[in-house]
Every structure is written in C-alpha cells, then in structure tokens.
Design goal:
Strand content: 15-25%
Radius of gyration: 25 Å
Structural class: alpha+beta
Helix content: 40-55%
Distance between the termini: 46 Å
Number of helices: 6
Strand order of the largest sheet: 5-4-3-7-6
Shape: elongated
Number of strands: 10
Largest sheet: 5 strands, antiparallel
Length: about 250
C-alpha cells in the first residue's frame, strides 16, 4: 500500500504493467525479509545462539536494509533490461527502500522484539526466584557412549553442560578450577536417561545443562539464555523445554 501511494521508484501507474511492477517491489521486499530471517545466523555466525545487545540489533537492522535494497536494486535493473548499475541508482534504491518500504516494517518488527524480550524477562524473573535445590543423589555418574570403552565417571556437582557435536556429545565439567572436556560417541537423547535424579535438564536440542551451575538467566529477543559459572558460553533455552525446567525448579 505504501508503495502504491508514494511510488518511491518513479513508477507512474499509467498501465497495469506499471501497477504490477510496483507490486513486484513489495514482493521482492517480502521475499528478502524471509530469506534474511532464514539464513541470517548462517551468514553471521557470531549472532547465532547469542544474546543480542542493542548494538547487535542495530547491526541486524542495517544489514536487513542493505539486503533488501540490493534485492530491489537487482529487480530495478531486471525490469530495465540490466542497463543501470550505477552507484547513484544503488544509493537511490537504498535510500527509498529504507524510508518507504523498510521503516514501517521495522517499526512493527522492533515492537515484536520488545514484546518477546518482556516475555522472557518475566520467565527469567520467575526462574531466578526459585533457586535450585541440591540433588538427593550425589554419587558419581557413569556416562556411557556407544563404544564399550566409551565411559566417563564424573561427580554431578562438577558437571557443567553437555553439547551435541554431530555424532558425539561433548561433556564439560569443572575440576580444580579448570574446565575439562570429554568426547563421548552418541547423542543427547542417549545421555538423558543416565542423568535422571540430578539437576541436569535438556534446555535445547543441542544442550543439557546443570541448573546448579546457572549464574544468571538472561532474556533476549532470541529467547532465554543461561550464563553458567566458569565458562563464557551462553546456553540457549528453547520454549519446548521450559516445562521441564519449571518442573526441576518447582516454579
């Protein structure tokens, strides 16, 4: 509707062809947004599974504007027989895409992100108010992988988290103030039954975490993240696993 009213790309709407050209700009913008949402984490791996601060959010917005602008620039050239690849035209497309097409969308998008953060802030506050009780069974765990000799004996109090790594599971624990890692062949689903009765819970398809080692619960537009003692990594929490965490916490 905005494109039809303001005609930022100088389309006169004197014919049905020009009408569909304008609709095409809107379609290119929508497709570009969807592609960006699907592949942004792969294109920018430093943002994947991390809490996005204000600076990160601004960067992702600028990236989205440029991504949509380049797509519209290519579309503009396609309907003009690829005869105008000048920097002046590219700047014109970037400017008008940002002002007319992207800004209204981003306003709604930022409101959506704000509501998500507020939702996860509420959940984080709920979990923070329910400290983890020490597990009744504190005897050593025997984690077994697929191989006969693939065994790790460890105290549950020392265990930090388990992370899926292709056909293996990486086990991280603290020992003498040092973070240790051991590789077991298998899957997290194979490990879960071996961890029953402890404060270890699946938080994500790629993580099992020791709730006794949680330092803070951090809300973000990406969801809830766990900051653990002794390590820098932030552990993501999927909505799918929130009920299991609530059960362990008694929240």
């Amino acid at each position: 509707m905005v494109l039809l009213l303001f005609r930022p790309f100088h389309v006169t709407l004197r014919s049905w062809w020009e009408f569909w050209v304008v609709i095409g700009y809107g379609g290119v913008t929508m497709i570009s947004v969807l592609i960006n949402q699907l592949f942004f984490d792969r294109l920018m791996p430093r943002f994947a599974g991390q809490v996005q601060r204000i600076g990160d959010q601004l960067f992702s917005i600028v990236w989205m504007i440029l991504f949509i602008s380049v797509a519209n620039f290519l579309y503009h050239n396609a309907i003009n027989h690829f005869g105008d690849f000048s920097l002046r035209t590219l700047w014109m497309v970037v400017e008008r895409t940002a002002v007319v097409a992207v800004v209204p969308f981003l306003s709604v998008y930022m409101l959506y992100l704000y509501q998500k953060v507020k939702t996860y802030e509420k959940i984080a506050g709920e979990f923070t108010s329910h400290p983890v009780q020490l597990a009744k069974n504190t005897s050593n765990l025997w984690l077994k992988g697929e191989g006969k000799s693939d065994v790790l004996q460890i105290s549950p109090e020392q265990l930090l988290y388990l992370q899926s790594a292709d056909n293996y599971v990486e086990v991280f624990w603290i020992e003498n103030e040092q973070v240790k890692k051991y590789l077991l062949r298998g899957t997290l689903s194979m490990m879960e039954p071996q961890l029953e009765g402890q404060n270890l819970v699946r938080s994500h398809r790629s993580f099992i975490v020791n709730l006794s080692q949680v330092l803070t619960w951090e809300p973000s537009s990406n969801g809830l993240m766990l900051r653990l003692k002794h390590v820098e990594i932030l552990i993501p929490v999927s909505r799918k696993y929130l009920p299991a965490i609530r059960k362990v916490l008694g929240a």
